[in-house]
């Protein structure tokens, strides 16, 4: 964008120089007296200065407008980025919490299954021990 502004400035400078040169040449080749010619040159120079000032003011106003627009758009983009970042952070936090809860539930389920299996194994061992004692008593009686 800065290259475009440079080109615009170059164009305006070229236009002012071209207008001044054209006016000066027109005055120089016009059949007038020296005093009249100097008056015309002064008048045309003043007009050129006025036009250049108008162009300068227009360029400054456009520059201010563009700067203000850039600040507004930049602020909007910043706000959108902050909002999206916040949303993503919240989503990640929720997903992490859900994953932790799911993992905790699975671990607890596995522990319950393990506890049930241990209880069943203990009961089975007790039954086997009782059967062995009964069998041992029968063997002793015989």
TrEMBL record:
<dbReference type="Pfam" id="PF12732">
    <property type="entry name" value="YtxH"/>
</dbReference>
<feature type="coiled-coil region">
    <location>
        <begin position="96"/>
        <end position="142"/>
    </location>
</feature>
<dbReference type="InterPro" id="IPR024623">
    <property type="entry name" value="YtxH"/>
</dbReference>
<keyword id="KW-1133">Transmembrane helix</keyword>
<keyword id="KW-0812">Transmembrane</keyword>
<feature type="transmembrane region" description="Helical">
    <location>
        <begin position="12"/>
        <end position="30"/>
    </location>
</feature>
<keyword id="KW-0175">Coiled coil</keyword>
<protein>
    <submittedName>
        <fullName>YtxH domain-containing protein</fullName>
    </submittedName>
</protein>
<keyword id="KW-0472">Membrane</keyword>
<dbReference type="InterPro" id="IPR052928">
    <property type="entry name" value="Desiccation-related_membrane"/>
</dbReference>
């Amino acid at each position: 964008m800065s290259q475009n502004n440079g080109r615009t400035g170059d164009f305006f400078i070229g236009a002012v120089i071209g207008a001044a040169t054209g006016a000066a040449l027109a005055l120089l080749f016009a059949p007038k007296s020296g005093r009249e010619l100097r008056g015309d040159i002064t008048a045309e120079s003043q007009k050129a200065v006025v036009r250049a000032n108008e162009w300068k003011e227009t360029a400054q106003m456009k520059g201010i407008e563009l700067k203000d627009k850039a600040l507004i758009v930049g602020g909007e983009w910043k706000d959108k980025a902050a909002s999206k970042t916040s949303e993503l952070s919240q989503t990640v936090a929720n997903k992490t919490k859900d994953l932790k809860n799911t993992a905790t539930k699975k671990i607890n389920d596995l522990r319950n299954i393990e506890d049930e299996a241990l209880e069943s194994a203990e009961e089975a061992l007790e039954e086997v021990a009782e059967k062995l004692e009964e069998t041992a008593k029968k063997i002793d009686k015989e």
